[in-house]
Design brief:
heterodimer; A: 297 residues; mainly alpha; MetI-like fold; disordered N terminus; B: 318 residues; two-stranded antiparallel ribbon
Amino acid sequence: MEVMSGTVTSGTVTSRTGSRGFATPSTREVVLRYALLVVVLFITLGPFLWQLSTSLKGAGEDIYTANPSFLPSSPTFDNYVKAFQTVPILGFAGNSIVVAGIVVLGNIVGATMAGYALARLRFRGVRLVLGAILLTMLLPGEATIVAQYLTIRQLGLADTLLGVALPGAIGMLNVLLMRTAFAAIPKELDEAAIVDGANAWQRLLHVGVPNVLGMLAVIAIFSFIGAWDDFLWPLIVLTTPNKFTLTVGLEYLSGTFTNNPRVVAAGTMIAFIPIVVFFAALQRYFFRGVDEGAIKG
Amino acid sequence: MTTVRGIRTRRGRVPHPAPRTPTVRAHAVRTHAWFTPWLLVAPAVLFLLAFNLWPTANAFFLAFTNVRVLSGGELVGFANFERMLSDAQLATALVNSIVYMLVCVPFLLLAPLGLAVLVEKKLPGIAFFRTAFYTPVVASAVVVALIWGWLLDDRGIINAMALNLGFITDAVPFLTDRWLVLFSAISLTVWKGLGYYMVIYLSALGGVPRELHEAAAVDGAGALRRFWSITIPGVRNTMLLVSVMITVSALRVFAELYILTNGTGGVGGADVSVVMLIQMYARGFSGNLGYASALSLLLFVITLGPLLVIARINRGRD
């Protein structure tokens, strides 16, 4: 990581530390800022906490009263048990993990290989490949979703988890991101490695990859979240209930339990808590990328 | 580049290279076999062909057929497009999409910028707030829509509190009124998008020179004045990018509306988004893939303009 800040953002880093004196806010400003932060915190996290609270309320507690209490009077996991009993929610979670695992692995390996070749190796056709990749940026996924479904069906993958995972397993945007990351490595390093007799694969593994770990982390995080959260595509591909991913399964659960918000709330928490823990654990890689300007949108 | 002192590799730090043979290139050292790059790009190119270019070409073809899920079809010329002209559902969906877009853009253009300015200063605990504000982005749209469905329920907390405080006498039908359900979904989209665009703005704010703020502060400009005269012009390009991104994502909205309307597509069959129509025709009772493809092409054409703008901005920034 020292390397990244040394190469890419050295200019901004010095200018930031240089102006620390100016950046020290007054007490009044600090208080105002924290007050606003807490208000926004309430808006962004409040709905999740309310759902968590509902999921822990027992059947005996009136959730429809005009004056509902925020804390459950006697917290219980009954609703979670009910959710587990009604639909195979652990199976759904397992399916989501399989899909997300394939997508993360595919993107890490596929985008790294292609990104390296496009950034660091000269070959005929590099412009053609790059142009075709850029062209795909103009296609919103939904515009090809019908044809995509036919392709998956012709491959015999309709109603399979592989069919859900495959189209997103090497994202073209990720190839471009990896290409940008590899392009930022100084040329001299490659040249030194060439002189030492390293071939392209060795240079990729020993010079390239160690210098793009930050970008790899960002891609892994977002591939995982994207696959875990996706709804439309698995909804189209999957038809057998025991193959559902969590999002499709949740819709199924809410269809069965529309009259019991407690159980639906328990189901949403089962889908939500893993992804939020995952993100919280890895958020520093993500926000470091933001500070370094890796996320452009 | 001069600041590079060493690069970490798996074998430890390699000192900054002073090339041992300064004329490496002159000797035309073979750096790699001709097929190596192709081996490296092969998986990506395979996916590009199989899951991007081929489906696109196929989508254009399918739009002129009446292929169904369980049976082959035949070419029907422009019949699918003619059908669009008299499709009342499509007209409703387009109107809804446009309203969606027009309401989302101003909110999501400005609120996240304010948030970004708020979390930019590195106060103690700011990492927690940044992560918390990003949480709705990380959650699946399905999860978020189910949560909001409960909040906005006839007997949910929002109606209960408003009734309790005497603001209303009857529950507001947030989810069962033709227009209210649309605005409920919009507020959900805005809420879920706050953190996403905040991060994009946060990244852009890093590029606004501190010196400008300092100089303005010395000249006596207050915080609001500096926000208006320095921050906004400094992130103008990002604002353009963000507004295009909001437009495109508003046209692609699906899960929020699908869940809030229990998969029915809206009150009295008033279908609420083009994407929803595509889903309905692709996988629904009729399984008319030809018409669904024609609808996807329509979506593609509508989003093409905004996406070209994004591509142009991105190229300008590289």
